[in-house]
Amino acid sequence: MIKRINIIIAGITLMLCLASAVAQSNPGASAITTLGVADGQAACCAKAAAVTDSYDPLIPQLFAVDTKTNVLAAINTVDNTVDILVRNTKGDSLLKKVAYRADKTYKRHDIKFIYRPQSVAVYAGHIVVLAANNDSSFLAVLDLEGNEVNKLKFPGCANAFSYSNEAKTLYAAGNNKFGYDFIILDAANGLDQLTPNDVAVRHYVKPKMSEVIAVKDPHGIGLTVIAMVVVFFALMILYLIFKQLGASMMARLKKKEGKQEEKTGIPASTASGDTHGAVYAAIAAAIYLYDEELHDEEATVLTINKVSRAYSPWSSKIHGLNTYFNNKR
């Protein structure tokens, strides 16, 4: 094993020596080759950096920083603000310079109409804030001092935005209860010059489950089969449950009767199904006869007499009239 390692080390040393000799014999070619590789790597790195700088993912961002001034913007969900922070010159801590409030929340009961900050970013020396409520959104452009430069409202619920520096276009997207909202803002004149005419809103409505079923099963055969299978399966489960419950109750009853027979020595009463019908007839006849003996014998004689009724003031209608106008003053 040690011999093999020594042989490998010797081979590597020999290759390095040969490469050094070739470089010394033709230094210009070596320099040109090295420079070409370096230039190619630098070009690739610059291109990758440019692609990386131009790529802005369409996702919500809670924090943003300006690399030139080190100004940090952070979304404060408790106070419904965007806090602009700067570095403390006396230490490594951060100080809140200003807080941009997206909307008032104090004594507000219309919660679904309150604008709440969704995303924040820094573009071209401006802090861009996206806020939205249940059905609309707005884009606020601030300077690095926290002053509002421009504010643009547009329909649609957006919770993320992205900016393309090459196309000078800002894209925003979000979800709503019906589907998705996609907003395109033309920023050719600058973010601080956005107008409602620069906004294009696209909506996508997700199909309902009933519509999907109607497309996949236009005649309703599959839905009918599924419904019948579910119903029969539920009935089968109920049948098994009640059958098992009845068997367990009968077993418990027989066990109880057996214990009672062991204690008293009297055989348990027979089941109700074994009782003869004549027994029930005799019981019913006895109850009927007993009920008949409770009544006295009464003569069925009808005594209908006509009674003459004399005049009675209770049946006179004149006493029910208002006598106020009959009184003379």
Report on the structure:
The protein has 329 residues and is of the alpha+beta class. It folds into three domains: 53 residues; 144 residues, YVTN repeat-like/Quinoprotein amine dehydrogenase (Methylamine Dehydrogenase, Chain H); 47 residues. Helices cover 37% and strands 25% of the residues. It contains five helices and twelve strands. Strands 1-2-3-4 form a four-stranded antiparallel β-sheet, with no helix packed on it. A four-stranded antiparallel β-sheet has the order 5-6-7-8, with no helix packed on it. Strand 3 and strand 4 form a beta hairpin. The longest helix is centred in the C-terminal third of the chain and has 44 residues. It is elongated, with a radius of gyration of 48 Å. 13% of the residues are buried. About 10% of the residues have low confidence.
Report low-confidence residues grouped into runs of 5 or more: 21-53
CATH topology (level 3) name of the largest domain: Methylamine Dehydrogenase, Chain H
Mean pLDDT: 78
Q: Can you give the helix content as a percent range?
A: 25-40%
> What is the strand arrangement across the widest sheet?
1-2-3-4
Number of helices: 5
- Strand runs, count: 12
